[in-house]
Specification:
The chain is α/β, with parallel strands linked by helices. The protein is built from 8 helices and 10 strands. It has a single domain, classed as P-loop containing nucleotide triphosphate hydrolases (Rossmann fold, 3-Layer(aba) Sandwich), CATH 3.40.50. Strand 1 and strand 2 form a beta hairpin. The N and C termini lie far apart (48 Å). Bound molecules: adenosine-5'-diphosphate and magnesium ion. Adenosine-5'-diphosphate (ADP) binds next to strand 1, strand 2 and helix 1.
């Protein structure tokens, strides 16, 4: 199953530029970064550490203001947090004094909205957490906490899900399980997803498009299409096509690295 071709742009980043004003001077994190994400497309953003990936994602979520440029959601500028946008961070960020149910309810309390219990039950079931609602974060493994964070974000029925290295802290096997889970969730309820990772295999497995950012200041260096049908089997992921694509992306990122001693 593939997202329909020729669908409208869901999220557009136009010349995003971000300067951080710090005590030691101005730091240009993003420089005229532009990309588009189509409706129900999964796009991964990869690039060297510190190139501005998190800055870009926070700008997309409306949590950060750009110094210049625009983020457009369905054609309208994102200037602050929007209910249509959900976000999952590297840390699950569950409140330790609340059980899982109360953590999932928390955003609804803040927004003074009524949750949809049937949808939340469906999500908990989908991620294998049914029966865990009364558990506290300390009683859950890292993978389970991150699954809970995904449920918390999806409970609000976002039309765009932003994920910032959500599985970066998990072991390899749990990470692969989580990747399969994201694929299943997407097949179940197609959603527009922007996924940040520095794991190229993960980016290719999940995405319709992989966007490579340049070293800081982040700018789109190139985009790679991943025209593979879903679900993506082990056989497909072990194919020559995927191997070559992985190497092309890795080579580009490695090639971008400034050799030691060559920095100006
Ligand atoms: P990435 O997620 O790709 O590792 P970030 O977006 O976190 O990159 O950071 C990009 C650059 O901006 C880095 O040099 C980082 O140190 C700097 N930076 C990030 N957030 C801030 C901030 N709040 N204040 C000052 N500098 C920041
Ligand atoms: Mg980051």
């Amino acid at each position: 199953m593939q997202p329909p071709e020729g669908t409208a742009t869901k999220l557009a980043v136009r010349n995003a530029t971000k300067v951080y004003h710090t005590a030691s001077g101005d730091l240009l994190a993003l420089d005229r970064c532009s990309l588009e994400v189509a409706t129900n497309e999964v796009v991964s953003i990869v690039g060297p550490s510190g190139c501005g990936k998190t800055t870009l994602l926070w700008s997309m979520s409306g949590l950060h203001h750009l110094s210049a440029g625009d983020i457009l959601l369905d054609g309208t500028p994102v200037t602050g947090p929007r209910p249509e946008i959900g976000i999952v961070f590297q840390e699950a960020n569950l409140l330790p004094w609340r059980n899982l149910d109360a953590n999932i309810a928390f955003p609804f309390e803040i927004k003074r909205q009524q949750p949809d219990p049937a949808w939340i039950d469906h999500l908990l079931h989908r991620v294998g957490l049914d029966g865990f609602g009364g558990k506290f974060p300390r009683e859950l493994s890292g993978g389970m906490q991150q699954r809970a964070a995904i449920v918390r974000a999806l409970a609000l029925k976002p039309s765009v899900l932003l994920m910032d290295e959500p599985f970066g802290a998990l072991d390899t096997f749990t990470r692969e399980e989580m990747n399969r889970l994201v694929e299943e969730i997407w097949l179940d309820t197609p959603t527009t997803i922007v996924f940040i990772t520095h794991n190229i295999e993960e980016a290719i497995f999940l995405s319709d498009k992989v966007v490579v950012l340049s070293p800081r200041p982040g700018r789109v260096a190139s985009e790679y299409r991943v025209p593979l049908p879903r679900p993506r089997s082990f056989e497909v992921m072990a194919s020559r096509e995927v191997f070559d694509l992985t190497n092309a992306i890795k080579g580009e990122i490695m090639g971008q690295r400034v050799p030691r001693g060559a920095a100006a």
